[in-house]
Structure formats: structure tokens, C-alpha cells
Amino acid sequence: MMGDEEEPVARKRLFHGWSQDDVEEFLEQDDAVMSQLPVSSEDRALGELDFYKRYLIQCLAKGRLGVEELRRMKDVKCEAFESYLCSLVNARQRLPLNNSAPRVPKSLMYTCDVDEHGRISYQRPYYEDGRTPLQRAFGDDKVLQVRFNCQGVTSPEMYRDIIERGFDVGLRHFEYFVHKEEKKRKNMRKVKQTRQQRSFFVCTKSIAASDLVDPHFLKFRSMDACRKYIMHIHTVPCLQLYNKRLQLALSKTWTANHDPGGEIAVGCNGKPLIHTDGTGFISEDLAKQVAVNTSEEYPALLQVRLFYHGIAVKGTLLTLKTLQHKTIVYRDSMLKVKADPKLANCPSFNSLEICTTSHKPPVASLSRYVIALLLEGGVPESFFIQVVQEAIAKAMTPLQDIAAAHRLCSRFSFGDMPRRMILAGIPLTDHFLRNSLMTMIRTQLKRYAKANVPLEGSYYLMGSADPTNTLARNQVAILLENGPLHRHKVLVYKHPGMHPGDVHVFEATWNQELESCLGNSKYVIIFPTKGPRSVVHEIANSDLDGDLYWICTNEQVSNLYKPQLPWQEKRTNGTTAVPSCLGMSPEVIMSRLVAMFLRAIFKPNFAISRAATNWLIHMDKYLSTSFDNVREREFRQNCLLELADLYYLALDADKTGEMVTIEDRLLCDKIKPHFLVEENSNNPNRRKIQQQDNVYRSTSIFGKIYNLVTEVIENEAKEFTGPLMFYEEFVYGNYLSYKDLWRQHFNNYRLEISLALDEKSAEKTDEIAAQYCQMLYTGSTNLDGAKKSIYQIYQESCAIYSVVHDHVQFCLDRARAGSENEKEWKPSFTFAWKVAGEPLCHLFCERRKESGGTFSVARDVLDTITGAPGALARLRRF
To answer: Does the keyword Heme apply (predicted)?
Structure first.
């Protein structure tokens, strides 16, 4: 029951970090509240809007709107606000924010960039899959992601003031929370001089009227109080761990239960249980609460982040049938931040956050690392060549098989239009469709060139520790779709293990004790807990906090492989410098954290990447060296072992504080194998690259696989993609009368898209296409919201196709005639299918003359029937 008794608690929650006197003074004196409002009438009017509108105004129209215009914006709906503002200030309108999959959690991301002169440029908000605990605790609009551009900046001091003091955005004040190294995206080019670092700023206070009257707006006296609301971070003993533990709030998660409730049991005191490092237990009833997007009753294993009254827990939870209801058991090794008893009565963020759960795994792929280790263990080179050849043949089947082509399109974000074309009955020999399929196939083949080739009988599973302590040291329990696996010999490895002993051989077994604890659990590997040392620690220095293990049950591989001696941790040349932060003032800690952040940007340690690159080059030369050359092989082998030790040490350097350096005697990356140089080069001329002085032609299995795949890619690129047909289905009505209009539009589009491609801006190309969609449909970017009649849209769409067809035919004729610059002629139907693809598919499907005609089918039903990954794959991530 809500009453007067709860009001002080609510006040205390809203003003976390404020003294009781401060709260009473602030809330009881209306004049004091109003005095914090902006002085100017424009800012007062701006403060009456919600933050999303204020932020967009700062992005697009700062200082360009009057008081009356700002007040009229209060009545504009948020979903229509961006287009309204763009039309008001004559800004380029982008595609609408796409949040079309409501079952998939999305967050609205606010980002800005700080250039080399300290100027801040704000980017328009966009939706991103998933949400972090940081966003869930404070709200999407109170977390700002900031990137600092250090290109051309000689001194980091110019950024220090911005980071330490924070800055104002939309009448809110944002302060630095934490930074984290950005994971390399698939389409992101490698940055040679700097590492990509993301910093996160959190709103601590506001002077906007809409925020001051919002009962749910969290206000903080300082960033120190803000951090303590998430976890009692001041109990962490050293700065390296301080920053690392704050990053726990940045994992993409979903909430199982906002307040975990029930019983939170703690593991044994003293030293962490090394055999169970990172794993705990959860009762079956709680596990069922997160059994979403899976066909199982509950997940066997959950990777979690637990925030509860100031503590922060990281690791995995194994579902136990024997555990009492509403119980979570975590071990000391999982407890990353302890609670401060002095803050027991302070409000805190309490939530069990799920990063991922065990689920049915797809077929796993090989890698250069695991291939090298398997070769060392006795698996012949010919086996891998055969696997690659079979994978290439399978990858090319979508060019002839409609079902395979449909499945391929379902796996790519840009495959929606080709998929529509296939379902409409457009032949696979169509110029645009075949080129689109080849683009997707080429993406797969490029992975194969890096030896990332699927291997039947292999998959990735999360691991946990044996809760019964009955498994022998050479045994594991592997639970798959059809129950426990019984196999005399299986291989287990964790990427990117570099030591020959990182591939372990186990017997897959099962027993009655495990049956009573785990029941019908699926998709998890259970490791033994016997022996003087954890077996997972022997596998690439791993633990059980969510690491994925490569499991190989392929009998050809497991029967040929001979186990090697396991990896032993060695002391290296790393130096430790971990200052304690206990007793430091919040101001000093903030200054030290900022210094760490600036050092990460301007003086990064590339020990991880250098160790990995040089290990790969040494391995390439080791595999290419004759067995007769004993001295050379021994030298390479010693270098490989040392680099593996350094690599594992560097992986933990951000937690241990060790400064890892790679000695010059271990470096060999001045002359690289051709496959490494070509992969990272924009120059398509392979022959020219291989003639460079700093490149040698690899003859190892890596070079052979690379050459095998790239030859297929080059041969397919040279092949003609079939006859250039004009379909009779697109001869519709009086479409010729619209050709002059759309020929002019097409010429304008080519000029605009050429400039956008020069700038390498994917967002601009989408915006340009959206403009021409608006011209075709009027009032919408798709057929559903079109204001024109469908009859006119069909005619204009056919005119668009005809115009583009004429242009492509002209380009092909010029190329065949031997144009001096054949590369200049790159015919493409992209404009036709990107702008008018939807009505063209409708028209083609309607006018097909098969006796069976056509019928409608829901997309999720079609995905289920055809086996396309579709929605289930997207949902499984969350």
C-alpha cells in the first residue's frame, strides 16, 4: 500500500548520494527548484520537452528555433518528431527508426563524437538489439556513448577536462562512468595506430522542467554515488579491477527478475574453488522464468550478471533439480564486488541479468589455430583440404537450388529483397538476384579462406563443473538434443588456444548421479572436478564463467589425434604495477580512471595482437619447414611456446595490471605470408602484392586453403551472370509514359550515390534510396503506406526497371566492345530493386501464368517450413 511511510524512501531513491537535509531543502522549497531552471526563455521552453526531443534539437537545430516553435513541439508525437524537425530546419531526413521486431529487446542509443579540437558532435539516436544493465538501471536516455577521435591529437590533456568535468546535453549534465575497448566488428577496418575505445557517460542531474517534475528521474550528488547505486565499487582493492568491474554493467543482457528475491546463498569462504571457477547453481523454478525463445522447458546453463544490494556477481548458473526453490548459489570466485555494510540502507540496483543461455548449437567451424594444433597432433593435411573442398561445393549450391538460395538470403540482413524475388518466382539467373547471391556466397568464401570452415560433428557449448564430483579426470558429460553423448573419444578446445596441449581428449560419459541433478538438461558440457588442477585451466587458461568450448565428436579427427602435454603457466617478463585504491577519495579515483582511459587511447599496449600475429607467422613457417631441418623447427617451436604464454598473460593484463612486452627475438612480422597481407589489403591485384619485398608466398596448409578458396572467388567473378532479360511481366499499362521522368531521377541518383560512396557512408546511401522511395510511393518508403494508386505504382515501377535495364545493357555493350577502361562499367540493377523491388515482386507474382496461382503465407510460418534461421536465431540471442 502506497502511503506517507514510503515517501521518504522514494525521496531517498530519487536523490541517491544527497544528504537528508539536501533532499528536504530541495523538495520543500518550490522557489529553490524553480531557480535551477534555465534563465533564457528558449531554454525554459526546451526544458518542457522530453529528452528525446531536446537531444534531436541539439543534433539538428541548436539555436535555430524560437520559443513558440519549441512550445508547439510538445504536442508532436515522438515517432513523428524527427521528420517534423527535419522539415522545419530543412535537414536531410533519414530512414525511420526501425523497431519492427517487438519481441526482440531493443535499446535507443545516444552517441556523440569529440573531435581533435574538443568539439562535440551529436549523432541521431538509433535502435540497437539488446540492453545493458547500465541502461536498465538509469534509462536509455540517461546513458550517452562518447567516442574520442585522437587522430592528429598530440597530447591527451585537451580531453582530460571534458572527461573529468562532464558536459551538458539537452539541459542534462552527463559525467564519465567507465570505458571499454570496442569489439572489432565484421565490417570494421583494422585500426593500426589506435584502439577503438568506447566511453560511457551517465546523467547525474538536470535543469529541465520535465525532468525536475518527473518522479522517476534519478538524481545523483556525484558520479561516485551513481556508481555505488549499481555496485559498491569502492570496496574493490585496485584501480585495474575498479575499471574492469564497472564494465560488468555494459554486457548486453535481459532481465530474469528485476529483484531476484528468494535466497541468495554464498559458496564456501576462503580461496576460490579452482575446479568450479566462475560457475554456481540456480533452482529449476527460477530457470524456468528465463526459458524464453527455446524449445526446452528451461535452460541448463545461464551466463549471468547479478546485482544485489551492492554486490556484483559474474559467471554461470547451472540448473539443479535438487536445489530448493527460489535459490541462487554463487561461489566466491563469482563475487567480483563485495557489499559495504555501511550502505546497507541505501537504494541499489537489484537485478538478475541474463547474458545468454545454453541453446542448440549450429555446426562449428575450424580456425587456423585449431587446424595448426590438430596437425601437430597427427591429423593429416589432406583431411582439411577435403573439408574445404566440400564446403566450397556446398556454398555454391544456392546458384542452382531455390531452397538453398532462400536459406542463404535468410541469413543476411541485406537478403530481404533477393528473398522476395525468389518467393515471387523470379529465376535465379536474374542479373541482380545472381549478383546478390554471389555477394552472400563470397562473404562465406572469404571466411573459408581464413580456414573458418564448418566441420561436421563439432559445435560450441558452454561449460560447467560436475555438481556430483563423480566424473573421472579424463571424463566429461556432454548433453545434446537427444540426451547424453556416449563416446570413447572426444576433443575439447577453447579458441584461441595456442598451446599444443590446449586440445584435450576426454571420454564422454553419463551416470545416475548426474541424472538426478541435471535431469533432461541439454546443450552443455560438464567438466570433472577431480585432480590437483582444473582441467579447464589447462585448456587455454580458461574458466567456467561463460566461455564457449569447441567440442569435436568427428571420429575421423578424434581417432587420428594424439594428445599433447597440457599447458603449464609460466612466469614471464611481464611487470606488475597495480596501485591500491582503498582509502582514495572519489576525486582521486576519478582522476586515475581518466588517466587510465587516456592511456588506453593514446598509448595502447598491442601485446595481444602482436603475440597472436607473430604466433601465426611462426606457425606458418613451422608447418612449411621440412622435418629434416631439426634446428629450424626447434627454434620455431620454442618461439611458439613463448608467444602462447605471453598471449595468455596479455589477455588478463587489464585485470592483473601486468605490462606485457614482446621481445624482438620473437618478432617475425616484418615479412608476412601472402594470405595475411591480402586479407588486410584493399588492393585486388594478388600478383602485385605477392611481388612485394615484405611478403612471402606461404606453402603451409594456411596458404593452400587461402589459394584454393580465392581461386574460386576470382573465377566466379569473371563468369557472365546469364542473359540480360526484360521480363514480359513488367510490360504493364502505359509504363512508357513515365520513363523520361524516372530516367532523370535515375541520373540524379547516380550522381548522389557516387558522392555517398566516396564518403563511404552506408547511412547516406540508405537515406538517398529512401528519398526516391518517397517519390515512388508518396508519403511512405514502402508499399503499405503509399498514397498513390497501386495501378500507378505498378506503371512507374515498370518504368524504373526499364530505365535501369537500358542503362545496364548499354554498359555491357560498351564492356564487350572493349572499352579502354572496362572497370568504369559496372552495371547494376540496384536502383530498380531497392526503390521499386516490392511492387515489382508483387506484379511478377500476380502475373505468373502457372495454373496453381499464388497464395499468402506468414513469414514466421515460411521460416519454419523452409528451415530458415529467421526470427528464432534473432530471438535466441536474448
So the answer is: no
C-alpha cell at 190: 583494422
What's the length of the chain? 878
Name the more confident of 766 and 808. Answer: 808
Return the ∠ at Cα 619 (arms to 618 and 623), rounded to 5°: 120
Answer yes or no: is pLDDT of 801 > 80: yes
Q: Which cell goes with 816? A: 564487350
Q: Using the structure block, give the residue that is written with the C-alpha cell 561463460.
A: 546
Residue 872's pLDDT band, with cuts at 50, 70 and 90, is very low
Strand segments, DSSP code E, in 408-467 are 458-465
- Integer Cα distance of 398 and 716 in angstroms: 13
Based on the domain organization, do 808 and 842 belong to the same domain? yes
Number of domains in the chain: 5
List own/partner pairs for 362-365 with CB under 8 A and 24 or more apart.
Answer: 362/459, 363/454, 363/455, 363/456, 363/458, 363/459, 364/454, 364/455, 364/458, 364/459, 364/460, 364/550, 364/551, 365/447, 365/452, 365/453, 365/454, 365/455, 365/458
Residue 388 lies in a domain: no
- What is the helix (H) or strand (E) element at residue 538, kind and residue range? helix 535-538
Which residues are within 8 A (CB) of 865 and not within 5 positions of it... i.e. 6 or more apart? none
Using an 8 Å Cβ cutoff, are 705 and 620 in contact?
A: no
Distance CA 844, CA 859 (A): 19
Q: Which residues of 280-316 are buried (b: 16+ CB within 10 A; e: fewer)?
A: bbbbbebbeebeebbebebbbbbbbbbbbbbbbbbbb
Handedness of CA 281, 285, 289, 293 (dihedral sign): positive
How far are the Cα atoms of 5, 205, 218, 243 from residue 24, in angstroms, in the given order? 15, 17, 16, 34
Q: Which of 138-142, 492-496, 692-696 has the lowest mean pLDDT?
A: 692-696
Q: What is the mean pLDDT of residues 548-557?
A: 96
pLDDT at 581: 78
Q: Are residues 37 and 174 in the same domain?
A: yes
Whose grid coordinates read 535466497? 263
pLDDT of 783? 83
Q: Assess whether 161 and 254 both reside in one domain.
A: no
How far apart, in whole angstroms, are the C-alpha atoms of residue 734 and residue 739?
10
Position 346 pLDDT exceeds 70: yes
Q: DSSP state, 333?
A: G
User: What count of other Cβ atoms lies within 10 Å of the Cβ of residue 865?
Assistant: 9
CB 409 within 8 A of CB 415: yes
Rounded CA separation 89/109 (Å): 23
Query: Is the pLDDT confidence value at 629 over 50?
Result: yes
How far is Cα 843 from Cα 864, in angstroms, rounded to an integer? 26
Cα–Cα distance for residue pair 173/162, rounded to 1 Å: 12
